[in-house]
Design a protein that fits this description.
The complex is a heterodimer of chains A (287) and B (307). Chain A has a single domain, classed as ABC transporter involved in vitamin B12 uptake, BtuC. In chain A, a hairpin with a 2-residue loop joins strand 1 and strand 2. Chain A has helices at residues 2-29, 38-56, 60-90, 93-119, 142-164, 166-176, 178-183, 188-213, 221-235, 240-260, 265-279; strands at 132-135, 138-141. Chain A has 287 residues and is mainly α. In chain A, strands 1-2 form a two-stranded antiparallel sheet. Chain A has eleven helices and two strands, in the order H-H-H-H-E-E-H-H-H-H-H-H-H. The radius of gyration of chain A is 18 Å and the shape is globular. By secondary structure, chain B is mainly α. Chain B folds into two domains: 1-30; 32-234, no CATH class. Chain B has helices at 2-25, 27-30, 33-59, 66-80, 86-108, 113-139, 151-174, 176-186, 188-193, 198-220, 229-232, 236-248, 253-271, 278-292, 296-306; strands at 143-145, 226-228. In chain B, helix 3 (33-59) crosses helix 12 and helix 4 packs antiparallel against helix 5 (86-108). Chain B is globular and about 55 Å long. The chains are: A mainly alpha (287), B mainly alpha (307).
């Protein structure tokens, strides 16, 4: 019984983790941008969903269809106008990785403070499907189940996109071998912008789901960025499929710790993260 | 004759340095409280940046552990309170930070590139999470009251720490250690082959420079009166030394100092007229640094001279 409870709890958290890490993984794996402002796009998704719900009564599930498409061009242009310029100035790839982290740190401030000016620092929440559903003898809030279902649906369609479409194949090729991808005629700069846009979009979708379960504020971004970093390292840096699996694993771990000592949840994730970096820096699926 | 010239140049540099420190020491006597706190801020960021860059500049490691070191120093003061004299507390704060750097460095200095950056970011957040958990479960409180020291005390303590941090950096850079660090940054394997104990050099430098970051944390926290983990381990302290060093110019000490001074003054100038837009503008400044000054202020001056 306890095992079932832990597994379900792990899936509920892990589904969201997988989604928020997939976007981050895409941005790093293909565009090589270590995007510390990833969580800010999650925050933007969450805050807009809140406003749409409270001001206009828009169902959060409808917001998915608004937030995703709106954030895509923003991400696309950010990479085109900002990160590609920085990449040229940085010269080498290693230097760019470090710089991209610092530039996105500046971006974090910009986005967070625009959000602060528009929404103020208050914690906000709204009630969406906040009734329990009995499942295999457990009572689980309906909104968490819906969030998991949506996260899995998005994750799965994204997986299909990567594996089955030719554009998805090009994305994977760009992540694996940049020069090789260029040789077979893939426009790599276009690919970078595209993946950055997808990353921002996926972050926003994760934010929409997060707002249905927890209270939100302009400050929620950074902790989610850190979670995304942990998941991505777990699944292997640049391994996009690995990050989907890594998210589920991390959800399971945090669910186990929540059962033993709830207040240590976050600390245990950091410890796990540092251990993975030390023992298997290429991730658990890495060679 | 050449050696004599070098000696003479060194002497005049030393004289200049002593003059600058002597002038700085006069600030509390002549300036208002505002200037005292402005200089404390400048000293703080200069220590952070110089300590960061002494290790990270030549080796190419990007450490984001500064917040962990600074915050540990702050918590040492918060824990010890008035049980010990302040100078001793500051030294213990430095030692705590050095110890943390030794343990973390021992584990992590063999990983490179972006992995090291992520590891140290995880370290800062992990220490923050651990202390937060400890405080809430053992004491039931989220923050702590801190003993307060006068602005003048903080100013002179910071000035001493600054001089010591600069001296540490200067001595490391001009010794065989500095040469070893540079060769590690350029080609670690080659450095190993010519007989450099790569791990020892990295570990000792990483730990020695973090001592002054911890000491800084221990003294500046007395300006506040209250501290919690959000303030003490703010991710801001991890990223700012990196940005400031790059802004000034990563290659030399003058660049690090210049970067910290200009950046701190800039942020002070922005804070007063734009209290609401301050952090927003700050973000724009950080992004602009990389777009417009990729080789740093020092690089910019060198380019002007060449042109």
């Amino acid at each position: 019984m306890i095992v079932l409870e832990i597994v379900i709890g792990g899936l509920l958290t892990g589904g969201i983790y997988a989604l928020l890490a997939a976007g981050f993984s895409l941005q790093y794996g293909v565009a090589r941008v270590m995007n510390v402002s990833h969580g800010e796009f999650i925050m933007l998704g969450a805050m807009s969903t809140y406003s749409l719900y409270v001001a206009l009564g828009v169902n959060p599930l409808v917001s998915l269809a608004i937030v995703g498409p709106v954030l895509f061009p923003i991400g696309f242009l950010l990479n085109k106008l900002l990160f590609q310029r920085i990449r040229k100035l940085a010269g080498s790839g290693d230097v760019f990785e470090g710089w991209s982290m610092l530039v996105s740190f500046g971006l974090l401030f910009i986005i967070q403070n625009i959000a602060l000016l528009s929404w103020s620092a208050d914690q906000r929440g709204y009630s969406f499907l906040a009734f329990p559903i009995s499942l295999a003898g457990l009572r689980i809030p309906a909104n968490r189940l819906v969030a998991l279902a949506v996260a899995l649906a998005i994750g799965f369609s994204f997986f299909l996109f990567l594996m089955r479409t030719s554009l998805g194949k090009a994305v994977r090729a760009a992540a694996q071998e940049e020069t090789g991808a260029q040789l077979i005629g893939i426009n790599i700069r276009w690919m970078h912008c595209l993946c950055f846009g997808f990353g921002a979009s996926l972050a926003g979708l994760a934010g929409v789901l997060i707002s249905t379960m927890f209270t939100v504020s302009p400050f929620i971004g950074l902790p989610y960025t850190i979670i995304a970093i942990i998941v991505v390292v777990l699944g292997g840096l640049g391994n996009i499929i690995g990050s989907l699996v890594g998210g589920l694993i991390l959800g399971l771990v945090s669910s186990i710790v929540l059962h033993i000592e709830p207040s240590l949840e976050l600390v245990s994730l950091y410890v796990l993260f540092m251990l993975i970096l030390l023992i298997r820096p290429r991730g658990i699926f890495g060679k | 004759m050449h050696a004599f010239g070098d000696h003479k140049k060194n002497l005049s540099q030393l004289a200049l340095a002593i003059l600058v420190v002597a002038l700085l020491a006069l600030v509390p006597a002549c300036g208002s409280d505002y200037y005292v706190s402005l200089f404390i801020s400048i000293f703080k960021y200069t220590v952070l940046t110089v300590s960061w860059a002494t290790f990270c500049g030549p080796t190419g490691y990007m450490s984001l552990a500064s917040a962990a070191f600074l915050g540990s120093g702050m918590y040492v003061t918060a824990l010890l309170g008035d049980t010990l004299p302040l100078p001793l507390i500051v030294l213990i704060g430095g030692a705590a930070s050095l110890l943390l750097a030794l343990v973390a460095g021992l584990a992590s200095l063999r990983i490179r590139g972006i992995f090291f950056a992520m590891f140290t970011l995880g370290l800062s957040e992990g220490v923050k999470g651990f202390i937060n958990w400890w405080e809430i479960s053992k004491t039931g409180r989220q923050g702590r009251l801190v003993i307060s020291a006068s602005g003048t005390t903080v100013f002179y303590t910071m000035l001493i720490i600054l001089v010591m941090a600069l001296l540490t950096s200067y001595l490391i850079r001009r010794s065989k250690f500095g040469l070893a660090l540079r060769s590690i940054g350029q080609e670690q394997q080659a450095a190993e082959h010519i007989g450099i104990n790569v791990n020892a050099v990295k570990l000792i430098t990483f730990a020695a420079t973090s001592f002054w970051i911890g000491a800084t944390g221990s003294i500046i926290v007395t300006q506040w009166s209250y501290v919690d983990t959000q303030v003490a381990f703010s991710v801001f302290y991890s990223f700012m030394p990196t940005v400031m060093a790059l802004f000034g110019g990563l290659g030399n000490m003058l660049g690090w100092i210049l970067g910290s001074v200009v950046f701190t003054i800039l942020s002070e100038l922005l804070l007063t007229p734009f209290p609401y837009y301050y952090m927003l503008i700050f973000g724009i400044v950080i992004v602009s640094v990389f777009l417009f000054f990729p080789s740093g202020l020092v690089g910019l001056v060198t380019r002007w001279r060449k042109a």
